[in-house]
Write a structure and sequence with these properties.
The chain is α+β, with helices and mostly antiparallel strands. 57% of the residues lie in helices and 20% in strands. The termini are far apart.
Length: 311
């Protein structure tokens, strides 16, 4: 009796273990390949829910249905114009054919390694086929700057550009990964940086370019300053000339008015006219003679009669 109970218990336990190992759950994020003795059986299971397999003989291999990321190692890559740059890349990929994926790559670790080979190789190839400007720049737009006319002329025009290189790498990679059951959804350059030697060359070029711009602005400023100073001197002389002319005209008018007033005042009688002549003669004496002055005048001079009278 005891032996029978043990036997029944053993059968129940084995049955439960068998049932447990024959049932598996597929979640929304999963896709499953059933293998029997290591070889895939049937199609991939992508429908979420409860599924069954043969216990102890078959195994359920889970793979991600969601989008996964790939981060490349920064590599030193030569460009077509023999300049070395560090390129750091990333991509997004997804398993599109789980059965083919399992046959070719077995698991996601193998997929990451294969993607490394494909994307790193394509990145190196496409960068090496283009000049450094093509990898760095995306368009031929004119920089928005106060010195646009100077900087814009110094930028070389590109024919491909970074975005096109990224798309070409993506297209080439998907051709190679198609037979692996995966698809590269997106590829981007995370960072592109110059190696130290090229950085120094770029900085020196930037410095010389800025010095050239500064010299140009300084020269233009000096020329503008000379022009402004010239105009200032010309305007000043013009103003002074006009002022002198106006002053002389005013003085002339004033002298004419004063002479007219004097004439009217001293032309009323013979005595007033004689007195006016006397005053003018005295003014002439005052302005002409001093203690050291010697003169020779004719006896017919108007001044002589006053000097004779003074004697």
């Amino acid at each position: 009796m005891k032996t029978k109970s043990i036997l029944i218990t053993a059968i129940v336990i084995i049955t439960l273990i068998g049932l447990n190992s024959s049932v598996f759950i597929v979640q929304e994020k999963d896709q499953v390949i059933i293998t029997q003795f290591g070889k895939p059986v049937g199609e991939a299971i992508t429908t979420p829910g409860l599924h069954y397999k043969v216990p102890l003989i078959q195994d359920a291999n889970y793979f991600e249905k969601r989008v996964m990321e790939w981060n490349g190692d920064p590599n030193q890559v030569p460009t077509k114009d023999k300049k070395f740059i560090f390129v750091d890349t990333y991509a997004r990929w997804q398993i599109t054919d789980p059965l083919q994926f399992f046959k070719r790559l077995t698991n996601e670790r193998g997929a990451q390694s294969r993607i490394d080979d494909i994307l790193d190789g394509d990145t190196r190839d496409f960068i090496a086929n283009n000049d450094i400007e093509e990898a760095v720049r995306t368009s031929n737009r004119i920089p928005e700057s106060s010195d646009t006319d100077i900087i814009g002329d110094s930028l070389e025009k590109i024919n491909v550009g970074r975005d096109s290189i990224q798309n070409m790498i993506l297209e080439s990679a998907n051709i190679q990964t198609k037979e692996l059951g995966i698809r590269i959804l997106d590829f981007r350059f995370k960072r592109i940086n110059y190696v130290q030697e090229v950085q120094n060359q770029v900085y020196e070029r930037m410095k010389s370019e800025r010095f050239r711009i500064a010299d140009k602005f300084r020269s233009e400023g000096q020329g503008e300053a000379s022009r402004i100073n010239g105009e200032k001197e010309r305007e000043l002389k013009k103003i002074q000339s006009l002022a002198f002319r106006d002053a002389e005209m005013i003085k002339g008018k004033a002298d004419a008015t004063a002479a007219s007033i004097y004439a009217d005042a001293y032309n009323t009688s013979n005595q007033s006219r004689s007195f006016y002549g006397f005053l003018k003669s005295m003014e002439t004496f005052e302005k002409t003679f001093d203690e050291k002055t010697s003169i020779f005048i004719s006896t017919d001079s108007e001044l002589y009669k006053y000097l004779k009278t003074m004697d």
